[in-house]
Amino acid sequence: MSKLLVVGTVAFDAIETPFGKTDKILGGAATYISLSAAQFGVKPGIVSVVGGDFPKEYLKKLNEKNINTEGIEIVEDGKTFFWKGKYHNDLNTRDTLITDLNVLADFNPVVPKEFMDAEFLMLGNLHPAVQMSVINQLAKRPKLIVLDTMNFWMDNALDLLMEVIAKIDVITINDEEARQLSGEYSLVKAAHKIHKMGPKYVVIKKGEHGALLFNNGNVFFAPALPLEEVFDPTGAGDTFAGGFIGHMARTGDISFENMKRAVICGSNLASFSVEKFGTERMESLTNDEIQKRLLQFKLLTQFEIELN
Amino acid sequence: MSKLLVVGTVAFDAIETPFGKTDKILGGAATYISLSAAQFGVKPGIVSVVGGDFPKEYLKKLNEKNINTEGIEIVEDGKTFFWKGKYHNDLNTRDTLITDLNVLADFNPVVPKEFMDAEFLMLGNLHPAVQMSVINQLAKRPKLIVLDTMNFWMDNALDLLMEVIAKIDVITINDEEARQLSGEYSLVKAAHKIHKMGPKYVVIKKGEHGALLFNNGNVFFAPALPLEEVFDPTGAGDTFAGGFIGHMARTGDISFENMKRAVICGSNLASFSVEKFGTERMESLTNDEIQKRLLQFKLLTQFEIELN
């Protein structure tokens, strides 16, 4: 079991889908990533920031899942990052209604001593300056650094983002972001260009259409599990990233063969996350359920064919 | 090797993509299906109609690929069905500029004697009345009937289409059409409803996102091969169907396990079809190339993971 450090937002989300709506509930990239990674028996440590309004019971909930919250700074007179979004009927698109950065606006991340020698580092989606600061604080270069980011940073902090991208091993972005970052429509060409920016491994997330893993000439595809109903897609991408890094940290094996398993694990965990609002499904999820669904992924994709 | 009968259009296509444009070239659903199925060593017979303007060399070209064109009626004083379309920059959407039904408007299909006992029947996309007529002409119910159709017939001949759907074993339609036919957004639910209309097997084609094969509770996914460049998507769906039925007819095995291989074969053949304009790539395609790409499909999808 390797040490896993997760950087990202810990937040309040308010979500509206065609199936209902929530008040402020627990959310944030680091939350979803850690809940997902923790399913693999690793004990992730989070680096993040919240306000004095953040319920202690949420931290306790994370601790009970073996997530170390020592690196979550609490700004007592500040307010927690808040996101409010509304999904369209197809659940594939959404409008952001509110983004209150609050304490995130002046966040200076501090890596706890215990995680200075983390072997696996997951940089969840937030300002590339924060991501870079964490990379620079670590005593030793981790075995594997995975970066998640989004179009917002390409639009608003591209130079800094490119510096971070040059330093990491695996980038996970969605298809539209891969196209924006590379200027290529073909995802094969996009991955090729992104390789040249630094990352040896490029994971392109296509939502309900699965995810592609590229490694200079090699390509592997993990489908999304076809579901009767998607209830709430919030956090699915982060849960995918958490399943990916969770499997990697559990096994400690950073080969391409093992990364194939990691994207399947990511897709597996994400398929649960969307079944209920927010983090609800991830909180009740058991290893037995994960194993059963892994078998479904095998049935979904594995075939025997003779070459002649 | 089983006898395969293919019903569908044999046509002139004029295609415009961001990479160039063609004059009237050989096209049509039955053409693409048969060229694809013929790669599997079966000798498909086509039932279709063309006008006196249809070049004899096109028929000869099909014959050279072991395709029986005896069932292609030639209306000497008529004109061949003509379709002209223009693809948008993303190559995922297109505008139909011209659809001249011509001889197709009064087409009464006649199944050649040699194919009255066909064990495999592929009903390519055309008027459901023509599809029904062919089903009714056959001396014996084929071992497997596969139907391809499109939203146009759902809009304009739904009752008749539903009668055909009730009689067939496998339906292949794209995701939007599956949603229209079932009234369900979720493809899992859509497939479930379509099962109830008759077909035991439902294949939902998602273009560059692959295809799903449903069989009451079982589901299998065949990805599309990620390509550097898609040159011309015309006929990709028909080529997929041809690879599917070609594999089925070659093996004669209509089990779900073998159908998994058939959708992989369909996806494999379709990945070639889009590499050049019209039928060009299918005409030069060799078995060696097909086998090599089949290996790519294995590398793309196969993984080893231990359940614990």
Description:
- Two copies of one chain form a homodimer.
- In chain A, helix 3 runs parallel beside helix 5 and helix 6 packs across helix 7.
- Chain A is globular.
- With 308 residues, chain A is of the alpha/beta class.
- Chain A contains eleven helices and 14 strands.
- In chain A, strand 9, helix 3 (128-137) and strand 10 form a beta-alpha-beta unit.
- Chain A has helices spanning 29-38, 56-64, 128-137, 151-156, 158-165, 175-182, 187-197, 236-251, 256-273, 280-284, 287-301, and strands at residues 4-7, 11-17, 20-21, 25-27, 45-51, 72-75, 82-87, 94-100, 120-123, 144-148, 170-174, 201-205, 211-215, 218-222.
- The model of chain A has no long low-confidence stretch (mean pLDDT 96).
- Chain A has one domain: UDP-N-acetylmuramoyl-L-alanine:D-glutamate ligase (3-Layer(aba) Sandwich), CATH 3.40.1190.
- In chain A, strands 6-5-1-9-10-11-12-13-14 form a nine-stranded mixed sheet, with helices on both faces. In chain A, strands 2, 3, 4, 7 and 8 form a five-stranded mixed sheet that branches.
- At the A-B interface, helix 7, strand 14, helix 9 and helix 11 of A face helix 7, strand 14, helix 9 and helix 11 of B.
For the structure shown, list the relevant keywords.
308 residues; 38% helix; homodimer; UDP-N-acetylmuramoyl-L-alanine:D-glutamate ligase; five-stranded mixed β-sheet; globular; alpha/beta; nine-stranded mixed β-sheet
Largest sheet of chain A: 9 strands, mixed
- Estimate what percentage of residues of chain A fall within beta strands: 15-25%
- CATH topology of chain A, what is it called? UDP-N-acetylmuramoyl-L-alanine:D-glutamate ligase
**Mean pLDDT score of chain A:** 96
Query: Largest contact between protein chains?
Result: A-B, 39 and 39 residues
Structural class of chain A: alpha/beta
Mind telling me the CATH class of chain A?
A: Alpha Beta
